[in-house]
């Protein structure tokens, strides 16, 4: 697969961008972020129906469009750019990829078409958001007469407040397994949490002997590839947001006048902008590369780790400077910059910090170098 | 960014990779022999049109695209065939002459650059003007049938073995600084040109001072027209910037056997001697992981983090450059201009590599020379990396270019826009 986007991919990106520019304006974001559901059901309908984005990455046999991580990344990048509020990441990316990777054919036929057409809003319940190695310490499943029973608490679950399907990673005597759970089932307790980034809603989810249906084989859930896909999509979201903030900050540098000149003519600020551009360009390249590697299976296995580490660092650095370079106005609630700043912060620590991803990358480099 | 040979390859798809490789393979079967002399071989190569296939057809080339030309080099590399001479300033000269020379100049100079018969140097920087290149004061005046040149140049890589120089000189002192410059091709082997090597902080002496006293240049060696010097210099500088990201690892060991290889190695020892430390100045990223494993520093969590950051940057820079190149080939202009960003990335990466090498070595980094780590390579990295953020335009200048031309931030206030005669200068130059 060639480097860079094809003409079709660029046209697709423009369609997604136009839709989001229209629907996910800063005003809409501000309205949605204070609601308890955190999303606009009408826009969700259009996303799934008219625009048809939710099944982009799912095979046609399961109601999707049969594209891959590159196209899915394009959507995530635009969603990050426009700070889209809604369960796209939880449902299509997290739960969608989880079922795709772990479910049997029957499971996929049962679950994926709903995720693809938006009638199902799913989420992936992980009891740890820092590292796949730590998943399964809080949630356990035991086999019961008619299936399995889940118990334990996941302290942070994305968009559980609107989910009508939960895909749960829990420990069993045979190892980590994925389960399907109906949020309405007995013993499920969903509680909204106060969050730093109001554009990404989180809930705690508790289970008490909740009936659950096993997906795929017991003990066979391999969270590493799933984590790689999720991290890559999150990295796309982050470089999208970083580009939006960088662009608005440049506009401000050209507009704001102090000492009789635009502040963007001060060399210390120009050089800072050049440094940020370099960091952004490298992160963008690494992120698009990760999608390409996942799509083709060719390249460094740890490309998603590189992408997440670089995108996290670039986004938060740009976000900090976006506020600094605006001065007092940048610190106000009124100005929009903090909306992206908070998304940068919540993305920075979601699915592993950049230090964690760099360490993971080194482990993989060493493993491959040893053979 | 102007690219002198850009137009050459844009005439439609032409032969496929397979066709090219078959054709060049057959041609090599007929012509290549390790028993040829280097100059005899390169003459065949130039006449056969395989020396610089991306160049225009009327000047030794085949108007190939970058990809098509890469298909040719692939065959050369695979078969161990010696290519054309490619020492740094020769590349700058050929691209600049291709882009701005008249056909007489192209006929006279291009062939001997390819065959390696003539070496070049870039005579731009002066004691009084480095970053502010357009403020240079070397003077060229018409005197009878020739241009007479007086002034001093400095930091000129390879000047000590160069036959010709790319000379930027002032021909008009009453115009604003950028408009009074002209671009000349100067014969270095004349009495008015004196070259004195300068020793660098890493012990090498790749660059020189060049004193020019009543040196003569024929009017046919003015490149472009009088006053066009700055515009033409931009081509040279942009080609130069592209060279910095190229080599972050060591070259291929040249261990092939045959008379032509002996001659080639001799050439490398002289023509490429000034460049033996260039991979080290780029940081030797390729050695970072092996070295950390060798010393055991790889077990240290902090070292792992710094090493991972280095590898991430390098990967990002490589992909970004490849994406920009691919976009340029396909006519998609969405990607930001890569030259200055690539050069700045090269500096940042080299510094991080030097940092990692230091952490990996610990106290051993106090040693240098053949008995030190990797036969002195690590020490050479540590004392060569400072050059990469200066040579070819400093980091600060690249950031000025990025912020003003790529990001379109407002320009600095200027104090040098009037006639050059009245512009404030370093005291020594007035
Ligand atoms: C290894 C090496 C090889 C070289 N080879 C050649 C060659 O072959 N031919 C040739 O002509 N030249 C060559 N050079 C010269 C090189 O191009 C200059 O050294 C470089 O452009 C800087 O100029 P300067 O040394 O005069 O430093 P100065 O321009 O005096 O810069 C001093 C400091 O001031 C900063 N500065 C200057 N202007 C600004 C500004 N506007 N904004 C912010 N900061 C600024 C610089 O970034 C630098 O940090 C070589 C240099 C090196 C190190």
Number of strands of chain B: 8
Unreliable stretches of chain A (pLDDT < 50, length at least 5) are none
Head-to-tail CA distance between termini of chain A? 28 Å
The CATH architecture classification of the largest domain in chain B is Beta Barrel
Element-level helix/strand string of chain B: HHHHHEEEEEEEEHHHHHHHH
State the strand order across the main sheet of chain B.
1-4-5-8
Mean pLDDT of chain B: 90
| Helical segment count of chain B | 13
Structural account:
The complex is a heterodimer of chains A (about 375) and B (about 425). Chain A is an alpha+beta fold. Chain A folds into three domains: about 5-115, Butyryl-Coa Dehydrogenase, subunit A, domain 1 (Orthogonal Bundle), CATH 1.10.540; about 120-220, Butyryl-CoA Dehydrogenase, subunit A, domain 2 (Beta Barrel); about 220-370, Butyryl-CoA Dehydrogenase, subunit A, domain 3. Chain A has helices at about 5-25, 25-35, 40-50, 70-80, 90-100, 105-115, 225-255, 265-295, 305-325, 335-350, 355-370; strands spanning about 120-125, 140-145, 145-160, 165-170, 175-180, 190, 200-215, 255-260, 260. In chain A, the strands form two sheets. In chain A, strands 1, 2, 3, 4, 5, 6 and 7 form a seven-stranded mixed β-sheet that branches. In chain A, a hairpin with a 2-residue loop joins β8 (about 255-260) and β9. The longest helix of chain A has about 35 residues, at about 225-255. Chain A is globular and about 80 Å long. With about 425 residues, chain B is of the alpha+beta class. Chain B has three domains: about 1-85 and about 245-275, no CATH class; about 90-245, Butyryl-CoA Dehydrogenase, subunit A, domain 2; about 275-395. Helices cover about 40% and strands about 10% of the residues of chain B. Chain B is built from 13 helices and eight strands. A four-stranded mixed β-sheet of chain B has the order 1-4-5-8. Residues about 1-10 of chain B have low confidence and may be disordered. Classes of the chains: A alpha+beta (about 375), B alpha+beta (about 425). At the A-B interface, α7, β9, α8, α9 and α11 of A face α10, α11 and α13 of B. Flavin-adenine dinucleotide binds near residues 130, 131, 155 and 400 of chain B.
């Amino acid at each position: 697969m060639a480097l860079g986007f094809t003409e079709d991919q660029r046209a697709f990106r423009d369609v997604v961008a136009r839709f989001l520019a229209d629907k996910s304006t800063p005003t809409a974001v501000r309205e949605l972020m204070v609601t308890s559901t955190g999303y606009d059901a009408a826009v969700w309908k259009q996303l799934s129906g008219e625009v048809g984005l939710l099944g982009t990455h799912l095979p046609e046999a399961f109601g999707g469009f049969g594209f891959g991580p590159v196209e899915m990344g394009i959507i995530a990048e635009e969603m990050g750019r426009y700070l889209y509020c809604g369960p796209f990441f939880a449902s299509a990316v997290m739960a969608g990829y989880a079922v795709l990777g772990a479910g049997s054919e029957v499971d996929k036929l049962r679950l994926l078409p709903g995720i693809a057409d938006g009638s199902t809003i799913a989420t992936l319940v992980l009891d740890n958001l820092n590292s796949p190695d730590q998943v399964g310490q809080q949630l356990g499943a035991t086999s019961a007469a008619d299936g399995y029973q889940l118990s334990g608490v996941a302290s942070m679950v994305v968009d559980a407040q609107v989910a009508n399907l939960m895909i749960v990673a829990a420990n069993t005597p045979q190892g980590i397994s994925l389960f399907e759970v109906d949020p309405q089932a007995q013993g499920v307790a969903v509680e909204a949490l106060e969050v730093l980034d109001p554009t990404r809603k989180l809930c705690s989810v508790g289970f008490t002997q909740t009936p659950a249906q096993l997906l795929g084989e017991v003990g066979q859930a391999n969270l590493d590839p799933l984590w790689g896909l999720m991290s890559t999509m999150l990295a796309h979201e982050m470089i999208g947001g970083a580009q939006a903030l960088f662009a608005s900050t440049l506009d401000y540098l050209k507009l704001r006048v102090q000492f009789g000149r635009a502040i963007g003519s001060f060399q210390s600020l120009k050089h800072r902008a050049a440094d940020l551009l370099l960091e952004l360009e490298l992160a963008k390249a690494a992120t698009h590369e990760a999608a390409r590697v996942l799509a083709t299976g060719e390249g460094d296995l740890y490309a998603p780790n590189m992408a997440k580490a670089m995108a996290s660092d670039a986004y938060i650095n740009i976000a900090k400077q976006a506020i600094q370079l605006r001065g007092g106005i940048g610190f106000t609630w009124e100005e929009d910059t903090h909306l992206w700043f908070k998304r940068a912060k919540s993305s920075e620590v979601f699915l592993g910090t950049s230090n964690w991803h760099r360490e993971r990358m080194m482990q993989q480099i060493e493993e491959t170098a040893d053979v | 960014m102007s690219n002198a040979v850009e137009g050459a390859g844009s005439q439609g798809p032409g032969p496929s990779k397979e066709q090219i490789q078959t054709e060049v393979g057959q041609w090599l079967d007929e012509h290549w022999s390790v028993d040829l002399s280097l100059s005899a071989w390169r003459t065949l190569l130039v006449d056969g049109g395989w020396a610089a296939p991306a160049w225009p057809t009327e000047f030794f080339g085949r108007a190939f695209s970058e990809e098509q030309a890469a298909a040719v080099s692939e065959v050369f590399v695979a078969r161990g065939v010696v290519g054309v001479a490619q020492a740094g300033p020769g590349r700058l000269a050929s691209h600049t002459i291709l882009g701005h020379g008249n056909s007489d100049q192209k006929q006279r100079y291009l062939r001997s650059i390819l065959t390696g018969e003539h070496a070049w140097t870039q005579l731009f920087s002066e004691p009084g003007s480095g970053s502010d290149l357009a403020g240079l004061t070397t003077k060229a005046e018409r005197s009878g049938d020739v241009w007479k040149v007086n002034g001093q140049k400095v930091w000129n890589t390879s000047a000590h073995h160069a036959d010709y120089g790319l000379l930027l000189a002032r021909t008009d002192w009453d115009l604003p600084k950028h408009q009074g410059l002209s671009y000349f091709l100067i014969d270095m082997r004349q009495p008015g040109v004196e070259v004195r090597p300068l020793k660098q902080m890493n012990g090498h002496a790749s660059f020189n001072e060049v004193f020019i006293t009543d040196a003569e240049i024929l009017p046919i060696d003015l490149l472009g027209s009088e006053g066009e010097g700055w515009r033409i210099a931009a081509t040279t500088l942009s080609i130069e910037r592209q060279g910095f990201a190229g080599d972050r690892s060591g070259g291929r060991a040249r261990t092939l056997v045959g008379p032509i290889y002996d001659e080639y190695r001799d050439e490398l020892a002289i023509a490429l001697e000034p460049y033996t430390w260039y991979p080290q100045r780029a940081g030797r990223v390729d050695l970072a992981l092996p070295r950390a494993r060798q010393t055991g520093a790889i077990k240290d969590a902090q070292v792992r983090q710094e090493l991972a950051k280095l590898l991430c940057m390098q990967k990002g820079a490589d992909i970004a450059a490849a994406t920009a190149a691919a976009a340029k080939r396909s006519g998609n202009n969405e990607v930001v201009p890569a030259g200055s960003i690539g050069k700045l990335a090269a500096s940042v990466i080299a510094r991080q590599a030097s940092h990692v090498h230091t952490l990996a070595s610990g106290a051993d980094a106090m040693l240098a020379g053949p008995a030190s780590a990797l036969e002195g390579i690590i020490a050479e990295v540590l004392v060569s990396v400072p050059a990469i953020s200066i040579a070819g335009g400093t980091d600060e200048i690249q950031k000025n270019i990025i912020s003003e031309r790529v990001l379109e931030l407002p320009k600095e206030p200027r104090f040098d826009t009037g006639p050059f005669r009245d512009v404030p200068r370093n005291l020594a130059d007035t």
